[in-house]
């Protein structure tokens, strides 16, 4: 029996594929390569196509005996979702509907879903609990919440069991140095800082120094991408053992401000990394920190790389070896 990984050529998806392969799982990757990279796939079978293409999905489901789906495929840029929400509803929400329809048709009863802290919006509490209010402040988070809810109703009606994993800030790269973070365009703090250290940018912009935090910059909960990947393996295992559907936060429980992240990157890289204060970025909550107690208790998940120095060092190793990202490989 194989595990289908949609979006398996993307940043988090490719790290999950690596963990599944290390566990000896048979992996079938479905990716339209809009954001994903062929070179990010370390094994398994790749099908290049779109979830919304029913004929394509029939081929994948017919040619493989799929036991569970891990669903990463989605657009994930908060800013873009505010200017082009239709793209997010079409690819994320409609894409998930198409996938669930096919799972129903082919009798696949387990799905692990890649969700986000953006489903919460401005948090009610710190750290954030899964039971807290979900009120997204951007279209991206709204589509992810809609996808979670759609999946829930497919369980209710058709018995498709699901685990939705709400990630906080994924960072870092695989310990092999073979796969890492490469988005086009890049908008994430850690890779942008490392581009400064590589001499590809003059400075890092700090979006807002007037937040209600100790140093005035936003605080986030950074979690190593391979720790996120491990949680997917555990979630599939839980569903295979007949576990109930549920929603889980995945974070380290530690918050770091933008200035602290830059300071740690200065230590790790030995580069001065000039920083320039700029205006706030729209839609950024001041503080996002997860409580991951539920994942620890119910999935048996334990982040192994929960030190930001080590997370940034792993990202730095990847960026130094691949200064142009996956382009270097072609
Ligand atoms: N930031 C800067 N300068 C930059 C880039 C980012 O100061 O050049 C700041 C942001 O304003 C934010 C922090 O660094 O305060 C982290 O920003 P990222 O863009 O790296 O990450 P986000 O917290 O905005 O978003 C991440 C994921 C989203 C997800 C969200 C959930 O990328 O997909 O976490 O919290 F929705």
TrEMBL record:
It is an enzyme of class 5 (isomerase). The keyword Transmembrane helix does not apply. It comes from the Bacteria. Keywords: Carbohydrate metabolism, Galactose metabolism, Isomerase, NAD. Its EC number is 5.1.3.2. One of its GO terms (biological process) is galactose catabolic process via UDP-galactose, Leloir pathway. InterPro entries: Epimerase_deHydtase, NAD(P)-bd_dom_sf, UDP_G4E. Pathway: Carbohydrate metabolism; galactose metabolism. Its cofactor is NAD(+). GO terms for molecular function: UDP-glucose 4-epimerase activity. The keyword Isomerase applies. It catalyses: UDP-alpha-D-glucose = UDP-alpha-D-galactose. Residues 3-251 form the NAD-dependent epimerase/dehydratase domain. Homodimer. Belongs to the NAD(P)-dependent epimerase/dehydratase family. NCBIfam families: galE (TIGR01179). This is UDP-glucose 4-epimerase. It comes from Paenibacillus lutrae. The gene is galE.
């Amino acid at each position: 029996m194989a595990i289908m990984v949609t979006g398996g050529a993307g940043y988090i998806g490719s790290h999950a594929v690596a963990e599944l392969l290390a566990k000896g799982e048979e992996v079938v990757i479905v990716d339209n390569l809009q954001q994903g990279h062929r070179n990010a796939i370390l094994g398994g079978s790749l099908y290049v196509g779109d979830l919304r293409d029913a004929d394509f999905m029939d081929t994948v489901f017919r040619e493989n005996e799929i036991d569970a789906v891990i669903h990463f495929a989605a657009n994930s840029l908060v800013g873009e979702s505010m200017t082009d929400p239709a793209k997010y509803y079409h690819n994320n929400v409609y894409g998930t509907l198409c996938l669930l329809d096919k799972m129903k048709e082919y009798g696949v009863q387990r799905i692990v879903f890649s969700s986000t802290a953006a489903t919460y919006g401005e948090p009610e509490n710190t750290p954030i609990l899964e039971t807290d209010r979900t009120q997204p402040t951007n279209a991206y988070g709204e589509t992810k919440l809609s996808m979670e809810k759609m999946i829930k109703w497919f369980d209710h009606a058709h018995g498709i069991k699901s685990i939705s994993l709400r990630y906080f800030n994924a960072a870092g790269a695989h310990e092999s140095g073979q796969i890492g973070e490469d988005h086009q365009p890049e908008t994430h703090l850690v890779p942008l800082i490392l581009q400064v250290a590589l001499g590809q940018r003059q400075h890092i912009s700090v979006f807002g120094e007037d937040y209600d935090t100790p140093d005035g910059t936003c605080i986030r909960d950074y979690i190593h991408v391979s720790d996120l990947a491990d949680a997917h393996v555990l979630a599939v295992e839980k569903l295979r053992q007949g576990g109930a559907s549920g929603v889980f936060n995945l974070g380290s429980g530690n918050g770091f401000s933008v200035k602290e992240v830059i300071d740690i990157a200065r230590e790790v890289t030995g580069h001065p990394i000039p920083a320039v204060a700029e205006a706030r970025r729209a839609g950024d909550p001041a503080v996002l920190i997860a409580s991951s107690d539920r994942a620890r208790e119910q999935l048996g998940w334990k982040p192994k790389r929960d030190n930001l120095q080590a997370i940034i060092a792993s990202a730095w190793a990847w960026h130094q070896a691949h200064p142009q990202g996956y382009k270097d490989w072609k």
